[in-house]
Amino acid sequence: MTVRAEIKTYTNYINGEWQSSSTNEVHDSVNPANKNEIVGYVSKSTKEDLDHAVTAAKDAQIGWRKLSAPARGEYLYKVANALEARLEEVAETMTREMGKTIQEAKGETARGVAILRYYAGEGMRKVGDVIPSTDSEAFMFTSRAPLGVVGVITPWNFPVAIPLWKIAPALIYGNTVVLKPATETAVTAAKVIECFHEAGLPDGVINMVTGSGAVIGQGIIDHPDINGITFTGSDNVGKRVGQGAFARGAKYQLEMGGKNPVIVAEDADLDLAVEATISGGLRSTGQKCTATSRVIVQNTVYDVFKEKLLAKVKEIKVGQGLNSETWMGPCASENQLDTVLSYIEKGKEEGALLLYGGSRCEGTGFDDGFYVEPTVFENVNSKMTIAQEEIFGPVLVLMKVDTIEEALEVANDVEFGLSASIFTTNIQNMLSFINEMDAGLVRINAESAGVELQAPFGGMKKSSSLSREQGQAAIEFFTNIKTVFVKG
Ligand code: NAD
Question: Can you tell me which atom of ligand 1 is nearest the CA of 257?
Answer without folding.
Answer: 34
